[in-house]
């Protein structure tokens, strides 16, 4: 089994339906990854250890998803020099806005790349990780170009279908 290039961490098992969107993208591009549950608040030592040991295990990028206070991405970033992509997850009283602010508003010197709230954000986190890895992997560059072309073809096909429906009204 190939060593994971991406470590995905989520604060709770309830975050799994969102974080699976990143996993789907990584699988689609053939990027090996590891998925873990660890809470910045409920098990801070374990979370810090996951972050600190990631680089030594061959991990190149960390994707961290959490809701509500959402300090997970920041805690992971504080413990490593690896790039960290934060995925804010909807929940709580203000439906993910708190998670977005907690993830995006990092102090200078400890960056977290932050994507949109929820499933679309998790999908984009997966794509962003693939883009980062493509800087040293020509096969991923080719796959990314094919992915973009495929998305464009899908939109064009949907437009043709719409035009066909409209012509029969």
Labels describing this entry:
five-stranded parallel sheet; alpha/beta; Rossmann fold; 2 domains
Question: What's the short story on this structure?
Answer:
With 169 residues, this protein is α/β, with parallel strands linked by helices.
Q: Give start-end ranges of low-pLDDT stretches.
A: none
Would you identify the CATH architecture of the largest domain?
Answer: 3-Layer(aba) Sandwich
The H/E string reads EHEHEHEHEHH
The tally of structural domains comes to 2
Number of separate strands? 5
- Report on the biggest sheet: 5 strands, parallel
CATH fold name of the largest domain: Rossmann fold
- Average of the residue pLDDT scores: 96
Report the top-level CATH class of the largest domain. Answer: Alpha Beta
The percent range for strand residues is 5-15%
Ends distance: 55 Å
**CA radius of gyration:** 18 Å
Structural class: alpha/beta
- The coarse silhouette is globular
Strand order of the largest sheet: 2-1-3-4-5
Share of helix among residues?
40-55%
Q: What does this molecule look like?
A:
The protein is α/β, with parallel strands linked by helices and 169 residues long. It has 6 helices and 5 strands, in the order E-H-E-H-E-H-E-H-E-H-H. It folds into 2 domains: 6-136, 3-Layer(aba) Sandwich (Rossmann fold), CATH 3.40.50; 138-169. The protein has helices at 16-28, 44-54, 72-78, 97-104, 119-134, 138-167; strands spanning 6-10, 33-37, 61-67, 84-89, 113-114. Strand 4 (84-89), helix 4 (97-104) and strand 5 (113-114) form a beta-alpha-beta unit. Helix 1 (16-28) runs parallel beside helix 5 (119-134), helix 2 crosses helix 3 (72-78) and helix 5 (119-134) crosses helix 6. It is globular, with a radius of gyration of 18 Å.
């Amino acid at each position: 089994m190939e060593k994971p290039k991406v470590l995905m961490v989520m604060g709770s098992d309830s975050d799994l339906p969102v974080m699976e969107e990143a996993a789907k993208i990584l699988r689609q591009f053939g990027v090996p990854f590891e998925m873990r549950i660890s809470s910045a608040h409920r098990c801070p030592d374990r979370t810090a250890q996951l972050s600190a040991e990631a680089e030594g295990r061959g991990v190149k990028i960390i994707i961290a998803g959490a809701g509500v206070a959402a300090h997970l991405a920041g805690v992971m970033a504080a413990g490593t020099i690896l790039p960290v992509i934060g995925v804010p997850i909807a929940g709580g009283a203000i439906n993910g806005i708190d998670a977005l602010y907690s993830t995006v508003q990092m102090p200078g010197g400890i960056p977290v790349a932050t994507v949109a709230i929820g499933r679309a954000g998790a999908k984009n986190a997966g794509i962003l990780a693939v883009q980062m890895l493509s800087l040293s992997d020509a096969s991923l560059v080719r796959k990314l170009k094919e992915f973009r072309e495929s998305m464009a073809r899908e939109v064009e096909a949907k437009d043709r279908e719409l035009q066909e429906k409209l012509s029969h009204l």
